[in-house]
Amino acid sequence: MKRSIKVPHRAAAAIAVMEMGVSDYSVIASAVGLTVEEVKRIDMAEDSPIRQLSCEGIPYGEYFTLEKDIRCPKCHALVRFAPCVACYGPTKYQSARQRGYI
Ligand SMILES: [Zn+2]
Q1: Gap between the Cα atoms of 56 and 34, Å rounded
Q2: Is 4 part of any domain?
Q3: Residue 2 domain-assigned?
Q4: Band of the pLDDT at 71, cuts 50, 70, 90?
Q5: How many angstroms separate the alpha carbon of residue 66 from the centre of ligand 1?
Q6: Which of 47, 53, 64, 68 is deepest in the core (most CB within 10 A)?
Q7: Measured at the alpha carbon of residue 51, what is the angle toward residues 56 and 43, in degrees to the nearest 5?
Q8: Is residue 3 part of a domain?
């Protein structure tokens, strides 16, 4: 069962990129097609659905297509989707199982 994401697509994508450990706002901004200011606002998580998503993490099975490839800080692969499937797929699967989502 999939939970729906209530935040705008680009904001969710930015959270997914941050979740991968990318902290450079300009890298995140160009990857998801937002401005640096917008990414900063998302990172501050003033909006409650955004705060909730960044606390809980991107649900298992949700991947966001990026406008530009980014280098995964963990496996150093260039990825077009966030979060990195190779690094986060198995971990997210386990945590989703533990929480009873799948
Ligand atoms: Zn990776």
Answers
A1: 22
A2: no
A3: no
A4: very high
A5: 14
A6: 53
A7: 110
A8: no
Q: Which of 52, 51, 54 is nearest to 17 (CA)?
A: 54
- Domain hosting 40: range is 9-98
Torsions phi, psi for 67 (to 5 deg): -80, -20
Q: What amino acid is encoded at 14 in this protein? A: A
Ligand 1: distance of its center to the CA of 90 in Å? 11
For ligand 1, an ion, list residues with CB under 5 A: 72, 74-75, 84, 86-87
Q: What is the 88 CA–ligand 1 centroid distance (Å)?
A: 7
pLDDT digits (tens, 9 = 90+) for 16-26: 999 999 999 99
For residue 32, give the nearest of 76, 63, 61 by alpha carbon.
Answer: 63
Number of folded domains in the chain? 1
pLDDT tens track for 77-86: 999 999 999 9
